[in-house]
Structures are given as C-alpha cells and as structure tokens.
Amino acid sequence: MGGEDGKSILLIVVVVLISAAAAVVESAIGVNWGTIAVHKLPPSTVVDLLRENNIQKVKLFDADPAVLSALMGSGIEVMVGIPNDMLAAVGSSPSAADLWVAHNLTRYMVNGGVNIKYVAVGNEPFLASYSGQFQSYVVPAVTNVQQSLTKANLGGAVKLVVPCNADAYESSLPSQGAFRPELTQIMTQLVSLLNSNGSPFVVNIYPFLSLYGNSDFPQDYAFFEGTAHPVVDGPNVYYNAFDGNLDTLVAALSKLGYSQMPIVIGEVGWPTDGATSANLTAARAFNQGLIYHVLGNKGTPLRPGMPPIDVYLFSLFDEGGKSILPGDFERHWGIFSFDGQLKYPLDLGNGQLKNARGVPYLPYRWCILNPNKDLSAVSNHIRLACSLADCTRLNYGGSCNGIGEKANISYAFNSYYQLQKQNPQSCDFDGLGLVTFLDPSVGECRFLVGVTDNNNSSGFSLQTKWPLTLIIIISWGVWLFLST
Ligand SMILES: *[C@@H]1O[C@H](CO)[C@@H](O)[C@H](O)[C@H]1NC(C)=O
Ligand SMILES: *[C@@H]1O[C@H](CO)[C@@H](O)[C@H](O)[C@H]1NC(C)=O
Ligand SMILES: *[C@@H]1O[C@H](CO)[C@@H](O)[C@H](O)[C@H]1NC(C)=O
Ligand SMILES: *[C@@H]1O[C@H](CO)[C@@H](O)[C@H](O)[C@H]1NC(C)=O
Ligand SMILES: *[C@@H]1O[C@H](CO)[C@@H](O)[C@H](O)[C@H]1NC(C)=O
After folding, report:
1. Are residues 313 and 407 in the same domain?
2. Which contiguous run of DSSP H or E holds residue 8?
3. C-beta contacts of 133-140 below 8 A and 24+ residues apart
4. Does residue 53 sit in the same domain as residue 145?
5. Nearest protein Cα to ligand 5, atom 3
6. Which among 401, 410, 413, 445 is the best mutation to test ligand 3's pocket, defined by most ligand atoms within 8 Å of the CB?
C-alpha cells in the first residue's frame, strides 16, 4: 500500500464527512416574512438575521421591491406571491401575466440576483370565508402565469403554487379526506395543472385554530408530545393534529389520482399572545415539536418516510397591522418580536436561533400617562390611539391584561407614540401624556420602543436633536436678553 492510496482514502473520507456535514446543515425549515407590520425593520437587517441564523428559505406574500433588493445575492430561496386581488387581472389577460413576470421575476432572476424558486398564485384563495370570490380566477391565473414563465425561459427554475388553507378539504377521519364538494372541479383542474408543471401542493395547517375555535378539541392532540386522545383510523393511529390533517390532504389528493404529489407546508405556527392558549410556552412546545417531528423524516401513516418537502413557519415577525377579525392573536404569530428579538429558544435544526443585530431603535423613551391629571376625558384618546396602534396585549388573554387602569392608559399612549415614530405631538393627548426615559414595562408586559425601517439614522437623530437645539438657542437668547 503506497502513501498515495492512504492519502486518497483520507481525501475521500474528508470529502464524505464534509458533504455529510453540509447535508445536515441543509434544512427544510423556512419562514414566512409578512410585512403588515406597523414597526418594520430595514429589509437588510432582516436578511442579515436570516443569514446569521442559516434560514435558507423564505416565503413572501407579494413582490415588494425593497424586500427583493435586500435578498439579492443572499442565495436564500424565495417564494414570491401574487396577491388575491390581482388574480382576476392576471387570469383574464396574458399580457398582465407577462408584465407581472417581467416586473417581478425576470428583473431579479439575474446573476447575483434573487433565488426565486416558487411563485404563489393567490394566497388561500379558496378560504371559505371569501365565499368563492377568487376561486374562478385561480386556474386561469395559473395557466397565464405558466405561459409567461415559459416565454421568459423561467419554466424550469420557477414553480407555480397555490397555497391553500386546510379548510379546502374536510373529513372526520384522515383516510376519508376529500376537497370541499364545491371545489372538486376546480381542484381537479388545478392539481392536474400543478402536477404537469412539476409543482408541489402547498397547504397551511393550524392546529392552534382548531384548539382556539373548538372547546372540545383535545389540547394535547394539538401538540407533538403524545396524546390521551389518539385518532384511530382503521389500521392507522394519529397522535397529533398535524399528521391527521396532512393525511386528510393526502387522501383528498389520492381521490383525484395524485397520491404521490409532493406537499409543502406553506404556513404553520403558534401565536404567543392575544388568547389564553396563545403563550410563549405553548408556542415553543408546538414549533419545536413540529420541527423535530418533520426533521425526524418519519412522515405520516399514509406517507411513511415522506415528510413535507418544505415547511414554512408562520411567522418570522409579529405583524401589528394585521386585522384582528379572527382574534387578537393574529398580531402575535412571530417567532421573533417586531424588532428581531427571539421570543423563546428555538432550534430550526441547525442550532439555537439568535437575535437580530444592529436593530435601528428609536431613542429609548416612552410616552406614559401623567398621573396627576384629571382622567375624565381619557377614554376618547385611548380609543383613537388603539384604533391605529396595536393594544391587543391589554385584552383578556393578553400579556398586558391586568396591569391596572393607569398602566393600561400608559400602554395605549406609548403604543401610539411609538407608531408615530416618537413625534412629540403624538404624546400630547390634551396634556395627559408625558415622555419618560425610564422603562415603564410591568413584569411580562413590555412597553415597546419603536424601530425605524430607514437604514439611515440621520432621519431620527435630527428629530431627537432638534428640540434640544431649540432649547439651547432659546436659553442663549434669554441669557443674552437678561445680561444686556
Ligand atoms: C409586481 O408586484 C408588486 C408587489 O406585489 C405589485 O404591486 C405590482 O403590481 C406587480 N407588477 C406588475 C407589473 O404586475
Ligand atoms: C398556554 O397555552 C397552553 C395551551 O395552549 C395552556 O394549556 C396553558 O394553560 C397556557 N399557559 C398559560 C400560563 O396561560
Ligand atoms: C385595561 O384595558 C383592557 C382592554 O381594553 C380591559 O380589558 C381591562 O379591563 C383594562 N383594565 C383596567 C384596570 O382598566
Ligand atoms: C443598511 O444597513 C445594513 C446593515 O445594518 C448594511 O449592510 C447596509 O449596507 C446599509 N445600507 C445602506 C444604504 O446604508
Ligand atoms: C437619510 O435621510 C434623510 C432625511 O430623511 C435624507 O435627506 C437622506 O437623503 C437620507 N440618506 C440616505 C443615504 O438614504
């Protein structure tokens, strides 16, 4: 045996070890990056956060140029979206589809550009609460955009998908799963179209909503730690709602003849505030349980060893501007707070997540109630403040419920003041407000300091320094006046 052989064996071993390590790092867990936030971080800070944490897949709900520019050159795999309200236009006009592709895809799919892998055509367009208003546009929109992709030579690189809410199918037992009867025809066409383009089926699954909306739902069945209420379905036994739901979809797809169609989880997660079952402990247990469950590659009873190909957690950040029609929890789905701070320890499969760095906070100051004032006129101010700013934490089930009446008022004042980027007038409230430099947070209830999405600190430092400058000039004037 020559030394050369030994060296080449060593080399092979090293190469195998390195590729094994690379395979372990490659994670199928991505995140949804929604931007209906009232406090937005600069997109470049968010992309740094994703890279720092080795999050390699991100799902967007539109094609925001600021976000896509920040993702350029990052290598992060991206899903962009065509919002539901564009489906009619794109579905009825091939040239509108061409324009969308030219403007929102081709432009970014260049060397050193954005690694766009999926386009979501609509977002949950079959949601029952939309009463069918989008459903007839979906197949025409997919058809047109697919043709535009082919024309633009992007048909191989980019796959079209239609993220569906799990309410598109139903059944009490997974093996009996079927799409809602009024969707059967559309789904038959859509799934055939997706399949012929090599696209997966994308579904959003929310055991939290099952638990929240149904007092009979066994709580332990929503999580991944075993249950006293397994669902027995012939030879198959389900120990968690996620697997049961997924197999209901598998059965529904099988009924249409696509039992092998790959599945992507477009959204899944657990909120941390705004309902009693929405808290840090539960969110951590659910998300960490889910991640280890998926990465364990066990699959489900109907698809053993075949877990979903990608899973996108919902969500990266809290979005304080979302409608609370579904419930106060809607603004609290983030694994990170709006300012990129991790809410609870979480491992996406390659180590514990880390906080965002270089967050451009506004100055550390808060707006609170001046306690020495007459409070008779305060309720109108609170109503106005909370109609624009997010006060959902104050409500029953929220982390700021029970902090007391005065702290309640201060919380509302501060939320509004930060929303207004600490504009001094926004802490007036007819003389009831007071700016403080002492953090008024109460226990778990954090009084936030806003962030700026402007990557450019001169914007707010001017604002901070301006009153000070004014005071200095005035004092100097007064001194001059008095001393002459
Ligand atoms: C590109 O996407 C953006 C954001 O989703 C949208 O507002 C715009 O209308 C799209 N452009 C075209 C030409 O469709
Ligand atoms: C957190 O949520 C879980 C279930 O979702 C619930 O069992 C638990 O009581 C909640 N914890 C608190 C402190 O409310
Ligand atoms: C604080 O505000 C919340 C939401 O408006 C309300 O439910 C709660 O009763 C208030 N608490 C006090 C002490 O006023
Ligand atoms: C914005 O900030 C990020 C990091 O915080 C930096 O990488 C980037 O170059 C900045 N962009 C501009 C235009 O200043
Ligand atoms: C920073 O913000 C100021 C004021 O908003 C603006 O005049 C300036 O052009 C900005 N600079 C950059 C590099 O964006």
Report:
1. no
2. helix 3-25
3. 134/84, 134/87, 134/88, 135/183, 135/186, 136/186, 137/87, 137/88, 137/90, 137/91, 137/92, 138/87, 138/91, 138/162, 138/186, 138/190, 139/91, 139/186, 139/189, 139/190, 139/193, 140/91, 140/92
4. yes
5. 459
6. 401
The verdict on whether omega for the bond into residue 315 sits within 30 degrees of 0, i.e. cis, is: yes
> Does 459 contact ligand 5 (Cβ within 6 A)?
yes
Q: How many domains does the chain have?
A: 2
Same domain membership, residue 280 and residue 185:
yes
Q: Does residue 474 fall inside a structural domain? A: no
Active site residue 77: no
3-state helix/strand/coil string of 239-280 = CCHHHHHHHHHHHHHHHCCCCCCCEEEEEECCCCCCECCECH
Alpha carbon of residue 13 to chain centroid: 40
Q: HSE (CB half, 13 Å, CA atoms) of 422?
A: 23
Domain boundary among 436, 452, 468: 436
The rounded Cα 137 to chain-centroid distance in angstroms is: 25
Last residue of a domain, one of 331, 358, 383: 331
In a domain, 200, yes or no: yes
Q: Pick the catalytic residue from 4, 26, 77, 124.
A: 124
Alpha helices in 26-86 (DSSP H): 43-52, 65-71
Instruction: Report if residue 221 sits inside a domain.
Output: yes
User: Atom 8 in ligand 1: which residue has the minimum CA distance?
Assistant: 100
To test the ligand 5 pocket, which listed residue (452, 456, 457, 465) has its Cβ within 8 A of the most ligand atoms?
A: 456
Q: Which residues of the chain have pLDDT under 70?
A: 1-27, 455-484
Q: Known catalytic residue: 124?
A: yes
Q: What pLDDT, in 10s, does the model give residues 418-469? A: 999 999 999 999 999 999 999 999 999 999 999 998 765 444 443 444 555 5
Can you give the residue range of the structural domain that contains 191? 23-331
* Ligand 4 near 358 CB (within 6 A): yes
Evaluate: CB of 75 within 6 angstroms of ligand 5.
Answer: no
* Ligand in closest contact with the CA of 344: 2
Which residue in the list 170, 182, 267, 330 is annotated as catalytic?
Answer: 267
298 contacts 311 by C-beta, under 8 angstroms: no
Residues 296-347: tens digit of each pLDDT: 999 999 999 999 999 999 999 999 999 999 999 999 999 999 999 999 999 9
- pTM for this structure? 0.87
Q: Are 60 and 163 spatial neighbours (Cβ–Cβ below 8 Å)? A: no
